[in-house]
TrEMBL record:
Residues annotated as domain RNA polymerase sigma-70 region: 45-114, 154-200
Alphabetic keyword roster: DNA-binding, Sigma factor, Transcription, Transcription regulation
InterPro entries attached to this UniProt entry: RNA_pol_sigma-70-like, RNA_pol_sigma-70_dom, RNA_pol_sigma70_r2, RNA_pol_sigma70_r4, RNA_pol_sigma_r2, RNA_pol_sigma_r3/r4-like, WH-like_DNA-bd_sf
Protein name: RNA polymerase sigma factor ShbA
Family the UniProt entry places it in: Belongs to the sigma-70 factor family. ECF subfamily.
GO molecular function: DNA binding; sigma factor activity
Higher taxonomy: Bacteria, Bacillati, Actinomycetota, Actinomycetes, Pseudonocardiales
Length: 205
């Protein structure tokens, strides 16, 4: 069976709610690395919703500060450019994808922080505007940044990543274990501890 036929079969499986077969995914990745245009198109289409959810979780809800869609597009473009040089080193392909996504999200946050710092509020307007001003955008980003800083203080980087992959991206414990080079049991324990820690902080008087 050709790679295109395999990919088409996986599309049917995924629409029915079944996960994509790892062997098939690896075959499509190998074909894409070799320059197969159809395999590349299928692969980028497959990872796009995963990348979008990941970026949304890491960036937050304030789209005015950073465009989630733009960052996700940057991730997909970087992935497309990196495919010819990709080599399977025993880790799942999605670990490679999320590695790129993590770097692009960090770049976007740094760039937005520089913009926010450059903006100043000269005076308070007499009449409230119905549209968000650049200063309001900066304030929204500042609030999002503070929330991100709080989460980073409360959780370890590993716990933070596990919660994003499990609760936002929607990966199973087994899939997260593959991505992070761990075991499903360890992922579940880390997730439980992270959620317990967050509850304690939120409910602290």
């Amino acid at each position: 069976m050709s790679v295109s036929a395999l990919a088409e079969r996986e599309d049917t499986r995924s629409r029915s709610g079944e996960p994509v077969d790892e062997i098939v995914l690896n075959a499509v990745v190998e074909a894409a690395v070799s320059g197969d245009a159809a395999a590349t198109e299928w692969l980028l289409t497959y990872v796009r919703p995963l990348v979008l959810r990941y970026c949304q979780a890491r960036i937050g809800g304030h789209r005015t500060a950073i465009s989630v869609d733009d960052v996700a597009q940057e991730v997909l473009l970087a992935l497309f450019r990196a495919l010819p040089g990709y080599r399977n080193q025993g880790r799942p392909f999605l670990a490679f994808v999320y590695g790129i996504a993590g770097h692009k999200v960090a770049d976007a946050r740094r760039n937005a922080a520089r913009v926010a710092t450059a903006l100043s509020v000269p005076e308070i307007p007499d009449v409230a505007s119905q549209e968000a001003t650049p200063e309001q955008h900066a304030l929204q980003f500042e609030l999002t940044s503070r929330m991100e800083q709080l989460l980073r203080k409360v959780l370890s980087p590993r716990q933070h990543e596990i919660l994003v992959l499990r609760l936002v991206v929607g990966l199973s414990a087994e899939e997260v274990a593959d991505v992070m080079g761990s075991t499903p049991g360890a992922i579940r324990v880390a997730q439980h501890r992270a959620l317990t820690r967050l509850r304690k902080v939120v409910t602290r008087p």
